[in-house]
Amino acid sequence: xxxxxxxxxxxxxxxxxxxxxxxxxxxxxxxxxxxxxxxxxxxxxxxxxxxxxxxxxxxxxxxxxxxxxxxxxxxxxxxxxxxxxxxxxxxxxxxxxxxxxxxxxxxxxxxxxxxxxxxxxxxxxxxxxxxxxxxxxxxxxxxxxxxxxxxxxxxxxxxxxxxxxxxxxxxxxxxxxxxxxxxxxxxxxxxxxxxxxxxxxxxxxxxxxxx
Length: 211
Ligand code: PRP
Ligand code: URA
Known about the structure:
Elements: E1 6-8, H1 12-22, H2 28-46, E2 52-58, E3 63-69, E4 74-80, H3 87-93, E5 98-99, E6 101-106, E7 113-119, E8 128-132, E9 135-136, H4 140-151, E10 156-164, H5 166-175, E11 180-186, E12 189-190, E13 196-197, H6 203-208
Parallel strand pairs: 1-11, 4-5, 4-6, 4-8, 8-10, 9-10, 10-11
Antiparallel strand pairs: 2-3, 6-7, 12-13
Bound molecules: 1-O-pyrophosphono-5-O-phosphono-alpha-D-ribofuranose and uracil (URA).
Uracil is lined by residues 135, 137, 195-196, 199, 202-204.
């Protein structure tokens, strides 16, 4: 595992909220709220290095040189379904970001991702892209989504996920060594059904109450 491109954001607030999400008694309403809050906290960290430019402005009492985010604009790309739960938190930080959607589900037998939807901002190749999905298990979904984005010309991509398995991190780093991964937790392993252990179960079902 390359630690230079893999970052665990272990802020106490993130850890605390994730612990509540992991608990099996936590219902969809709280799960949704907490995922959104964690996405915002993680978004604050991953946007830390956005380049600033100095601009001249006038306050009501004086002129000054002030910092403004320069150049490329952001795009948030959730992987459906569960990635949807991270969009609001990120948009609360960057309300002008464009949002694209990539629909992938895991084949229950092979665990390979199956693509069913893709709608991206027209100028996606000019944007700094944050791909979000709460779970990085085998890494197949995230790797597939990033491949789709690269085919559309995206060059600056970061992956934001909540819980990662070592297998997923290794797959992603092998397929896309240029993509930095930001996660709230690195768990132990995958089980025979490619679920993350200890994980938090099926993120999509818990988020939308479908099971
Ligand atoms: C989950 C999760 C990821 C994927 C991770 O989605 O939200 O997209 O599994 O697994 P992987 O790393 O092995 O690809 P799922 O396929 O269950 O679809 P859903 O979000 O619609 O429930
Ligand atoms: N997808 C989930 O929602 N949870 C896992 O543990 C693995 C994949």
